[in-house]
Specification:
This protein is an alpha+beta fold. It is built from 2 helices and 5 strands. The strands form 2 sheets. Strands 1-2-3 form a 3-stranded mixed β-sheet, with helices on one face. Strands 4-5 form a two-stranded antiparallel ribbon. Strand 4 and strand 5 form a beta hairpin. Helix 1 packs antiparallel against helix 2. The protein is globular, with a radius of gyration of 14 Å. The chain starts with 11 loop residues before the first strand and ends in an 11-residue tail after the last strand.
Length: 111
Amino acid sequence: MTLSAMHIATPLTGTRYDTVLRQALALVRAGDYRARRITLKGAPGVFADRTAVITPHRDSSGAFDADDLAAQLYALAHGIPSDTATYTDGYFVSRGRMHSARAEPYEIDWQ
């Protein structure tokens, strides 16, 4: 089976968490709920590029969980993946420590 370009989400690449998060949020708010590859470019001599597949999720009422997406990207940016692979409501545990991320400060006027 061959996938068409319509089925493959365009990857996002950037050097800043906030810029890439704004781009990802805008795509989902525009109706593109596909998982996509995200690459945060590293700083030479400091840390390498970090790449992961980020997947938009919906909450129990069916609404987009923007904080979940922010937490996935936060985990990627800081090299702290969730121990349970969940980021519901922006909360996750990595290496036994609780972390959280919020999307609201990064939302572009989407309403």
